[in-house]
Amino acid sequence: MRGIGYRACGLAFAAALALALTPGSAIASTPCSPGDWSANGTDTPSPCTPADLGYFVAVSGATSETPCLAGTYDPITDSASQANCLVDDPGNSSGAGAPSETPCSPGTFAAASGSASCSPADPGYYVAVFQAVSESACLAGYYSPGGPSATSCTPSPAGYYAPAASGAPIACDPGFFAPANSGSCPSDPVGTYTPAAAPAPIDCAPGTYAPNIQSIACLVAQPGYYVDTAGAISESACPAGHYSANQSSVACTPAGSGYYVDHAAASSETPCSAGSYSATVASLGCSSADAGSFVAHAAATAEARCPAGSYSSSIGSTACTPAPVGSYAPAGATAATPCAEGTQTTSPGQSSCTPVPTLAGGGGSGAPTLAVQKIVKLGHGRVRLVLSASASGVFQASAHTSVVNGKASAGGSFGTVRISGTGANATITIKPSKAARALLARARTVRISVELTFTAKSGGKPVKRTVVVTVRGARQNG
Q1: pLDDT tens across 347-362, in order?
Q2: Regarding beta strands 219-220 and 327-328, do their DSSP bridges make them parallel or antiparallel, or are they unpaired?
Q3: Under a CB-based contact definition with an 8 Å cutoff, are residues 137 and 114 in contact?
Q4: Could you tell me if 139 and 165 are in contact, meaning their C-beta atoms sit under 8 angstroms apart?
Q5: Distance between the two ends of the chain, CA-based, in angstroms?
Q6: What would the pLDDT profile of 190-207 be if each residue is shown by its tens digit?
Q7: Whether the predicted pLDDT of 50 surpasses 70
Q8: Spatial separation of the C-alpha atoms in residues 188 and 217, rounded to whole Å
Q9: How far is CA 150 from CA 92, 93, 109, 125, 126, in A?
Q10: Rounded distance, CA 83 to CA 96, Å?
């Protein structure tokens, strides 16, 4: 019975198999269950495929799988529900159909959960680590242009500064400077200047200075001033005896010989005027020519002695005075010296006196001669001269004041001259004028120069002589 039963079962299976293998016969199919899918949604002719990682199949008979949304992921297969898609954690991201979340790379971050992508660092910020949930601001003195490559901040270069969270360095304005890694630009100090984007202040060169901070250029020293060091904050006035004629002077020039500077801050030297001189450099003033000397021109470096026959009685003379008739002057004289009794000078500017001749010739053989026989002082300034000549002729005479109280005088006529006599003999009487009498009233002595001229009737060259006569004044005993 058991054998019959087995045989009957075998026949039934064989019949069923034969039916299934018969062309044109139909085979029953089963729809794919949730979590699986196939091209026609059933398990025939191909078996159903489980949903891939990052995908899910939520219905039966599905012909495709559905990707998890961006910002979510599915780490298992055969998921039958969207609920199996997990939300990305902060610091991670995922695209659609992701099997897992991806950590944000350095330079990017994800602050919230469910991020489809990581955000690049903003300008002024950086991200140094993986899976960052935030970006970090650059410190002052550093900057970052931002972007996915911003994994660190760059130091600001010299001449530039960067406040905190800067996307780019900023050039310092003129008058300011910055070394590298600066968060701000300090002012340049006094004595320096800076152009734009300066890494350090620059010292003002000699001849220039900067009195204020934030200088973009140095001031030049003005004429009369100088700056002899670098980094100066002020100009200095040239001291007296020195000057500077140009701008930007680094030193002052001493006044040259023959010149002077009598005040500070001078822009030029001044020549010594005539009558004065300067023998040295850097003089504050000029020296006046001493009495007995003179300086004829400006800018002189020395005084000159009055030559013999002249004198200067005061300081600061520009010329010497010739000794008048009846007096003389050696070199360097401060006054003319009257000729002694019995001596004379017959013209101005003599260096010595000569004896008064008792017989004066006219020169040449047979020339007439003129002699002073007697000089008589009549009192009150009146004088009489007795003359004789070697031939008959005409006598002429004049008298003027030459010396008063021992000092040469360029006085005028002493008085009237009266000539009496004929032929070869004559008497000359001199009477003082009103002015001469006034002079005698206040003087001790007065010397009179009497100019004599004789012309012979027979012709020939006139004979000229000078006679000096001293008369007493009212103050002789004063």
Answers
A1: 899 999 988 765 444 4
A2: unpaired
A3: no
A4: no
A5: 205
A6: 999 999 999 999 999 999
A7: yes
A8: 11
A9: 18, 19, 11, 7, 5
A10: 15
Six token digits for residue 99: 């099997």
In angstroms, rounded to a whole number, what is the distance separating the alpha carbons of residues 157 and 172?
11
Tell me what the pLDDT averaged over the chain comes to. 88
Q: What does the H/E/C string look like for the chain?
A: CHHHHHHHHHHHHHHHHHHHHCCCCCCCCCECCCCEECCCCECCCCCCEECCCCEECCCCCCCCCEECCCCEECCCCCCCCHHHCEECCCCEECCCCECCCEECCCCEECCCCCCCCCEEECCCEECCCCCCCCCEECCCCEECCCECCCCCCEECCCCEECCCCECCCEECCCCEECCCCCCCCCECCCCEECCCCECCCEECCCCEECCCCCCCCCEECCCCEECCCCCCCCCEECCCCEECCCCCCCCCEECCCCEECCCCCCCCCEECCCCEECCCCCCCCCEECCCCEECCCCCCCCCEECCCCEECCCCCCCCCEECCCCEECCCCECCCEECCCCEECCCCCCCCCEECCCCEECCCCCCCEEEEEEEEEEECCEEEEEEEECCCEEEEEEEEEEEECCEECCCCECEEEEEECCCCEEEEEEEECHHHHHHHHHCCEEEEEEEEEEEECCCCCCEEEEEEEEEECCCCCC
Q: From CA 235, how far away is CA 250, in angstroms rounded?
A: 10
For residue 54, CA distances in Å to 67, 97, 211, 395 come to 6, 4, 74, 161
- Name beta bridge partners: 142: 155
For 299, list phi and psi in degrees, rounded to 5: 60, 35
**DSSP-H helix ranges across 149-279:** none
d(CA 20, CA 119): 61
Q: How many CA atoms lie within 13 A of 283 on its CB side?
A: 21
C-alpha 74/C-alpha 80 separation (Å) is 11
pLDDT tens, residue by residue, 110-162:
999 999 999 999 999 999 999 999 999 999 999 999 999 999 999 999 999 99
The DSSP secondary-structure symbol of 264 reads S
Neighbouring residues of 13: CB distance < 8 A, sequence distance ≥ 6: none
Q: Report cis status (omega within 30 of 0) of the bond before 45.
A: yes
**How many angstroms separate the CA atoms of 343 and 449, rounded?**
11
The closest alpha carbon to 448, from 427, 464, 432, 435, belongs to 432
- Determine contact, residues 269/256, Cβ cutoff 8 Å: yes
Residue type, 325: V
Q: Which residue has the tokens 């970090």?
A: 136
The model's pTM is: 0.62
| CA count, 13 A, side-chain hemisphere, 296 | 6
